[in-house]
Amino acid sequence: MNLPHHGSNPQHVYHRLHMIPPDKIIDFSVNINPLGPPPFIKENWLDYLQDIYDYPDPEAAALVQALSEKEQLPAECILPGNGAAELIFILAQLLKDEQVLITEPAFSEYRQALEVQGAVIDSLVLREENGWDLDERIFKKMQGKKAVFICNPSNPTGRVYSRALLLEVIKQAEKTETLIICDEAFYDFTAESHSLAGDLCRFSNLIILRSVTKMYALAGIRLGYVMASAPIIKKLKKRQPHWSVNALAQRMGISCAKDTDHAEKTRGWIASEREKVKHELLSIGMTVYPSSTNYYLIAAPKEKELYPYLLKKGIVTRHTENFAGLDGNYLRIAVKLPNENQALIAALKEWKGC
Predict the structure, then answer these.
(1) Using CA atoms, how far apart are residues 179 and 15, in angstroms rounded to an integer?
(2) What is the pTM of this model?
């Protein structure tokens, strides 16, 4: 099937498949906070708007300072960007023509960015029978590589990897000056923190990617940041376009960096709602895989055509055609509001003949 590479923008899915979209569509393909933006975004909206009349600070100094305080890291170890996607493409510039390992299934942007730079890409495809967990094979696979991309929590599986194993990977990689690029875009949705940010000062080869817009439902403003040693940040900054982070993103990012209430509320709510949905799906015979974040996988063999069936019902899930190791035989589904989750369950019950 000729499908978009990402979730969101469901109109493109229907267009690519030459399907007429139904009047009502629920987008389960996009992994942003179903509770929406925090109240302070709406409360301060008119204040934020004052900043659109002038060019943004090209250094994003106030935002960097707010992130520095949040992460307890020196300001020179943080670089904001126009979404994590921009930062991935900038990172790829450091890896031009190099040998790089991607642990998969994983966000397709890593491969796309690396291919543009002519990198030689190898894959470590994690196994379903092992719960798509990171395993000891990585030590052999990463030999001779300039960098390794690891998404933790995993997108698309929602799996959180062992902290002990990740630290051992970083230690072994440090001996050969191999960069470990850990994408933590969904770390703040997990019930317990699994971030490696506190280890950045110990490892000069560790790079961490973050997204601001998923937890705070601000995908349209495009904001992410990267954390690494000062020398790496300096190299990345040289490759970043001027005024990369717009004025609204900078102001909202500062507010989000100071937040704890909205994130804490979201984590508890997501964990509870995800388990409710999982219980109902299991009760009708669906295969649902464990997840620690705001999305999960279900088994959906292509020959059973569940994906197009749901599209006809106005339920847009995330196909897995471009996730290595999944190959379109699963669907990734976001945790949404209760009434939306019930619409999904009703459609699946109908499909199952329940």
Answers:
(1) 40
(2) 0.95
